[in-house]
Amino acid sequence: MTTTTPPGAADREGITMNGLRLIRRHAAAFGRFAGLGSGVTLAASAALVLLSRWIPWMAVNALTTVASTV
User: Fold this and answer.
1) H/E element holding 9?
2) Structural domain boundaries of the chain?
3) What is the spatial distance between Cα 45 and Cα 64, in angstroms, rounded to a whole number?
4) What does the pLDDT look like over 59-68, one tens digit per residue?
């Protein structure tokens, strides 16, 4: 009867190669999430300030919220 460890689990030698790949993929995904998310937030803030000169603040806020979520 052989037992296998799930991908990413540690065996006797420590973290497996699959585990390292999994960690790297998750770190890369988090980096994209944090980087792109903050970029969208900064762009939405700039758009909010610029558009509020011509459109009422509440309408601009709703517009940028919808646009940044899409």
Assistant:
1) none
2) 36-70
3) 8
4) 988 988 888 8
User: Do the beta carbons of residue 16 and residue 10 sit within 8 Å?
Assistant: yes
The reported pTM is 0.52
Burial class (CB in 10 A: 0-12, 13-18, 19+), 34: exposed
Selection from 27, 24, 7 nearest residue 16 by Cα: 7
Kindly give the pairing relationship between strand 14-15 and strand 10-11.
Answer: antiparallel
Q: Is 44 exposed, middle or buried (0-12, 13-18, 19+ CB in 10 A)?
A: middle
Mean pLDDT of the region 44-70? 88
Joined together, the tokens standing for residue 58 give 């509440």
